[in-house]
User: Fold this.
Amino acid sequence: MAAPPPRARGGSFRVLCTARVAPSSPDGVPMLGKRAVPLTFLDAIWLPTPPVDRVFFYRLGADDDGVDAVLSRLADSLSRALHVFYPLAGRLRLTPGKTNRYELFYQPGDAVAFTFAEHDDGVGVDELAADDPREVAKIAPLVPELPDGGAVLAVQATVLPPARRGLALGVTVHHAACDGASSTHFLHTWAAACAGAAVLPKPPVIDRTFIREREDLYDYMVSRTEESDKFRSPDVADSKLLATFTLSGGILQSIKDRVAGVAARRGKSPPPRCTSVVATFAVVWQCHIRAALGDVEADNKHHGRAHFIFPTDHRARMEPRVPDKYLGNCVGPCFASAPKEEIAAADAEDGLYTTCAAIAAAVDEGTRYDPDYWKRCMEHVGGMSASDGPPLAVAGSPRFRVYDVDFGFGRPAKVDVVSVAKTGASSVAEGRRGGSEVGVGLPPERMERFRRCFADAVAWLSSPSRPVTRDMDRSAPGHSPA
Assistant:
């Protein structure tokens, strides 16, 4: 495939070149021939969605090789990793002779576009990798666009100040090719190969016959590709800010304790199953709703229901069981819903209990992969009113261990899912120092309201547990306790 033309970007951002990195076969192993991997109905769900854009920020130490040697190792090891992840070097296309079935097709000569760039306007890795709100326009150039023609993977390495010792590694993956577990499996394999690990992670399982096909759902997913855009946010990423918010292990435990306390007062036994992931989702959802209620036109948004969607991995739940290292999509949605007024309740603990209970119930329902699972999903989608506004969705998972992606020059200083600024989702990952962290992309005014809501929530959750009631001033949601 031809290298993509450079995008029009700011003054001192320079694309040096775009290489084509093809899979390389180890000594004694035959070269790969033509291969087609059919998409399943679980892949077809993602056909119309934007690709997932991640950027990993690294600081090269004094003892690390020079940046040119690092870039060379990245390209060489990418070639080796692509040998076992060859579908990612291919392209997405209609299956020959079909009008509504798709496949990943690889043939000799296919390769991944690897762009090399420099950024030297004084904005270094420390500023770009900060947690505080940053302009998406400064981060977006660090991730590559997918080349035309059906490519499903592109990577970019951008050298950053100071003294060319910062590195941003951008990775763009089309979700129809694989889910987050698969794409991060690829990243861990690439990183291990680059670091010279004696033993690489287990290779992926590419056999799609493990997925029991649902032709009716495949037809439905393909037929709904245009309609599926109705809840997607406009592509206005450059006008937004991107920020990261951290919940420590202690804060997560405080959430669990307070939810258990409300359940006890209400006589609810057992209480909602409030895991660390549920607790993280609950705070983020509540802060999103409260930040949205501060909009000028918010009077029409106080009522109705709020919706929250997050993925669950079905590999261990399907029959037959799908291998853990299956390369493809094997996730389904969980749907949580609750009245907006209850989520943004003046009593902080009541609002937190509402979100945790709704999310815990969604986990219980969404992890039951029985014959009625997809029927329930469609009923949830059909029950969403346009007047409620778009649901908040989640990208990523703490289980992906993105901060363990070490190419031989240390753990990432920061990982951002840049595409949340396009999709309106929030990203979730393991915290760098324990707990969990959340990435949010919002317009400036709403980002400030979200930031204040989150700071108030953390301050309240850090205080001794006791019932808290505050008047909720919706014109100044920063004063809300959670």
Summary: The two ends are 50 Å apart (CA to CA). The chain is about 30% helix and 20% strand. The CA atoms of residues 404 and 411 lie 6 Å apart. The longest strand covers residues 13-21.
